[in-house]
Amino acid sequence: MKDPLREEIIGYLLTNQEKFYRLAFSYVHNPDAALDVVQNAIVKALEHYNSIRNIKYIKTWFYRVLVNECLTALQKGKRECAYEPEDLQRIQDQPVEENHQAMEIYEQVQKLPEEMKTVVILRFYEDFSLAEIAEVTGAKLSTVKYRLYAGLKNIKATFEEGLA
What we know:
CATH architecture of the largest domain: Orthogonal Bundle
Distance between the termini: 66 Å
Number of helices: 8
Oligomer: single chain
Shape: globular
Number of domains: 2
CATH superfamily of the largest domain: RNA polymerase sigma factor, region 2, helix turn helix motif
Order of helices and strands: HHHHHHHH
Largest sheet: none
Strand content: under 5%
Radius of gyration: 17 Å
Number of strands: 0
């Protein structure tokens, strides 16, 4: 007999693999390591899918698992290596100047402390609401707002220093 909750989770995981990979890559900067992180997160999610209390929270529940796997991979020093900008998928419809600027911003996001980086990536690269980010990170909404605005302020200051 099929478990409807498990089937729904599997469907969600299959539908959103590219998003999961993109997030993992933004942490580990290595294509193979990103695939490993996503695979580990999916395995953990499938092993513990009964812990989800409400199916409508599947997105934030899984992203919490994925972000934790990303942080674990970084803490263990697994496959840490510098990324090459050409590994990142470029936005094809934008002029080269905009691609260059987007790349510079992305590089500054990567230099943020992990907690700020997680909030900025989930908000601007994965289009999460602040409430969803709070749920994924396990932080209070006010803490998420602080981390977001502090991270953006940090990035802005870096660019202003470059202009001076």
